[in-house]
UniProtKB/TrEMBL annotation:
Protein name stated in the entry: Hypoxanthine phosphoribosyltransferase
GO MF: guanine phosphoribosyltransferase activity; hypoxanthine phosphoribosyltransferase activity; magnesium ion binding; nucleotide binding
Domain Phosphoribosyltransferase, chain residue ranges per copy: 14-159
Keyword list, A-Z: Cytoplasm, Glycosyltransferase, Magnesium, Metal-binding, Nucleotide-binding, Purine salvage, Transferase
Family the entry assigns: Belongs to the purine/pyrimidine phosphoribosyltransferase family.
Pathway of action: Purine metabolism; GMP biosynthesis via salvage pathway; GMP from guanine: step 1/1; Purine metabolism; IMP biosynthesis via salvage pathway; IMP from hypoxanthine: step 1/1
Reactions performed catalytically: IMP + diphosphate = hypoxanthine + 5-phospho-alpha-D-ribose 1-diphosphate; GMP + diphosphate = guanine + 5-phospho-alpha-D-ribose 1-diphosphate
Length: 179
């Protein structure tokens, strides 16, 4: 699996430090508010578990499962909701926890989808931002790192369902996905 990595972009240590920084900032910003973290499966699974441990104020956690990439390296453009929220989010402060924003199609669809549920606020924390490829503009309140226009894997993020269990974030060798 590690042989398929072109370059390690963020180490285990970098990522744990980044979660600490984001957790501190979120804890300050949401002090006294009813915070619900909404992890977007599957990609956000590792980021969500690391980030939530660094948040020092009370919060609920929820998950949605959303997909648009399938086994390819480009967005299908069609966002599929495989699992919706379990709780009523009216009056709550929603913080969507996402691993990567690329075209922006997934997050803009999601925010639109959740808009009429009477949440007090809806914001996004996204670990990685691949700015160069953006097709849909969407404001992201908290961003971990900017990444180059490479196919990213590891720390929950897959190519065709593989590499999610790598403990670091890297780019995938071109020959693996540009066939
Ligand atoms: O900004 P976009 O171009 O929409 O891309 C970002 C989305 O793509 C990936 O999800 P994917 O559809 O691969 O599902 P997964 O999280 O289960 O891997 C990633 O986890 C984001 O949700
Ligand atoms: O670079 C990426 N890697 C994996 N999944 C993704 N979904 C959007 N961009 C990416
Ligand atoms: Mg994926």
């Amino acid at each position: 699996m590690a042989d398929d990595v072109k370059e390690i972009l963020f180490s285990r240590e970098d990522l744990s430090q980044k979660c600490r920084e984001l957790g501190d900032q979120i804890s300050r910003d949401y002090e006294g508010k009813e915070l619900v973290l909404v992890g977007i499966l599957k990609g956000s699974v590792v980021f969500m578990t690391d980030l939530m441990k660094e948040i020092t104020i009370p919060c609920n956690i929820e998950f949605m499962e959303v997909s648009s990439y399938g086994t390819g390296a480009t967005s299908s453009g069609v966002v599929k909701i495989n699992k919706d929220l379990d709780m009523d989010i009216s009056g709550k402060h929603i913080l969507i926890v996402e691993d990567i924003i690329d075209t922006g199609i997934t997050l803009s669809y999601l925010v639109d989808y959740l808009k009429n549920r009477k949440a007090e606020s809806i914001e996004i924390v996204c670990l990685l931002d691949k700015k160069e490829r953006r097709l849909k503009d969407i404001p992201v309140a908290y961003i971990g790192y900017e990444v180059p226009d490479e196919f990213i894997i590891g720390y929950g993020i897959d190519y065709a369902e593989k590499y999610r269990n790598l403990p670091f974030i890297g780019s995938l060798k071109d020959e693996i996905y540009k066939k």
